[in-house]
Design goal:
mainly alpha; single chain; about 65% helix
């Protein structure tokens, strides 16, 4: 997989765009092969960034489904040498635990990255009120704390007014 030099722009930018496009369109049964190929690029930082974007896109789609855990295991194996990608997959796993109200601890959430905390607040499915309250009080940044307070208020308003779970707009869309 190589980019055409006649397309203009720095070659790594062209390869990055090409990788993103290929990863977005890859059939599920070819995903692992393509990720391995991308990660072999001579520009490791660019390749990791392209794969990271793909992992974020795919994890958001699979987050609450049955295939998520197996997919994360495979992706973790494929990205074992990539610290950032491994950490991001761990964060997606924590996000899933919180969103589905599986076992999670306050420490896991408060010690998590700002990305994880913002993702909990912004997830399209209703985050448990306990998680939102915790982030409203002890989130890493003012931005996280304010967003969690807003989401809690939104959940309370929707619960009183319409009986819904309070899932609001999402940064995942």
């Amino acid at each position: 997989m190589t980019a055409s030099p006649s397309a203009g722009g720095p070659p790594e930018h062209l390869r990055f765009a090409m990788y993103l496009s290929a990863l977005e369109a890859v059939p599920e049964d070819e995903e692992a092969r393509l990720i391995v190929e991308v990660l072999r690029d001579t520009d490791a930082r660019m390749a990791s960034s392209a794969v990271g974007r793909h992992l974020d896109r795919r994890a958001a789609v699979l987050l609450t489904g049955d295939r998520f855990a197996a997919w994360v295991r495979l992706m973790t194996d494929l990205t074992a040498e990539q610290l950032f990608l491994r950490r991001r997959l761990e964060e997606w796993t924590r996000l899933r635990a919180v969103v589905l109200d599986h076992a999670w601890t306050a420490e896991e959430l408060t010690a998590g990255s700002e990305w994880l905390q913002r993702a909990v607040v912004a997830t399209p499915t209703a985050a448990p009120r306990e998680a939102l309250r915790l982030l409203a009080e002890r989130g890493r940044t003012r931005r996280v704390r304010a967003a969690a307070r807003t989401r809690l208020s939104h959940v309370a308003t929707h619960d009183r007014g319409s009986g819904t779970s309070g899932a609001g707009p999402s940064v995942f869309e």
